[in-house]
Amino acid sequence: MNLRAVHYLVKLADVRHFSKAAELCHVSQPTLSTQIRKLEEELDVQLVERSPRQVMLTEVGEEIVEHARAMLAEADAIRAVARRSKDPHSGTIRIGIFPTLAPYFLPHVVPEIRRRFPRLMLRLFEEKTENVISMLRQGRLDAGLLAMPIDADQLFTRVLFEEPFVLAMPEMHPLGSKSSIRMEDLENQELLLLEDGHCLRDQALEVCQLAGAHEQLDFHATSMETLRQMIAAGTGITLMPVMAVKPPVAKTENLITRPFIKPGPKRTIALVWRKSSALSGFLEELAGIMAGLDPELLEP
């Protein structure tokens, strides 16, 4: 199977337009069309529905494109492994990371990764967990930084650390008089949460269920920073991961945090990649660096 034709098919699936796909592939439109027809002949199946106004993939074409993405990603990984045989710490690594971890974790690890691997290009994609998993399966990412557990049997998981949650509240909130929080202190409390799709929302809902707390239903934040500002405005309380309140994050006026009495709520962070990845050895090495956080960063 011609990898170039597979690449053309994936680009066509991305833009749904022959001329645009050809331009992105730096070939003429007839060349791209001919290669895709040859691919259809080789597979003995129609991949593309052609019409003057639009391009659509057939049902089997859509399915084949998903496999094609993974195929091209593995080909790229093989090339990267070959390059690393001459220079083990060069090339490009694409890592997905969910939004309630990215801005708080990356400042602590990226400088060390760049110091250790100055020839490595680190491409970071901030996406919700379900998107990171999908992109991993499609071969569009090499690894993902995710909160456990995840339902992905084709992925290898390397646990990095456990991050405690703290309770965030306005300065004058009654629970602010306590030096630490027990789970039962949350009974009948209403917590502000993120909108659907954020794994932090699911983790906070689990804590609510265990502690007898409730979700505040009249507001769902779109980001951690929106949530932070809503708490500072005196609209409620919430759970925040401890790194979200550590430097270099600036202190927020009228927002205080209290730790939970151990063992309190926490999230488990892992680096995840495809079991079939040719980059597994290097990703293990990268995971070791990410796991080497200063322990003080994880202390409430």
Describe the structure.
The chain is of the alpha/beta class and 300 residues long. It folds into 3 domains: 3-73, Arc Repressor Mutant, subunit A (Orthogonal Bundle), CATH 1.10.10.10; 88-161 and 267-298, Periplasmic binding protein-like II (D-Maltodextrin-Binding Protein, domain 2); 163-266, 3-Layer(aba) Sandwich (D-Maltodextrin-Binding Protein, domain 2), CATH 3.40.190.10. Helix content is 41%, strand content 23%. It is built from 9 helices and 11 strands. It has helices at 3-15, 18-25, 29-43, 59-86, 102-116, 129-138, 199-211, 224-232, 280-290, and strands spanning 48-50, 55-57, 91-97, 120-126, 143-147, 155-169, 190-194, 214-221, 238-241, 256-259, 266-274. The strands form 3 sheets. Strands 3, 4, 5, 6, 9, 10 and 11 form a 7-stranded mixed beta sheet that branches. Helix 1 crosses helix 3.
